[in-house]
Amino acid sequence: xxxxxxxxxxxxxxxxxxxxxxxxxxxxxxxxxxxxxxxxxxxxxxxxxxxxxxxxxxxxxxxxxxxxxxxxxxxxxxxxxxxxxxxxxxxxxxxxxxxx
Length: 100
Hints:
Helices cover 78% and strands 0% of the residues. The protein has helices spanning 3-22, 29-55, 60-90. It is elongated, with a radius of gyration of 20 Å. The N and C termini lie far apart (74 Å).
């Protein structure tokens, strides 16, 4: 595939992702974050494969891009779990002091 085809697919995916995420109701946000965390874990596996290919005789560019992808996906996973935990905490019942 040529560069223009790949770029146009990337731009369309960005638009679709934007409209899908912003049209989700707040009640479905937590399951969506869980799926996003799962996708990020798959990205980390791919980035580790790219880094290993770069380290085993491949180009140095793939090694460094794999390292950057691992770092960014790790931040995304951590942030996703933090946001999910915070949203789930909003639905917990608050402890009320016993009436005397």
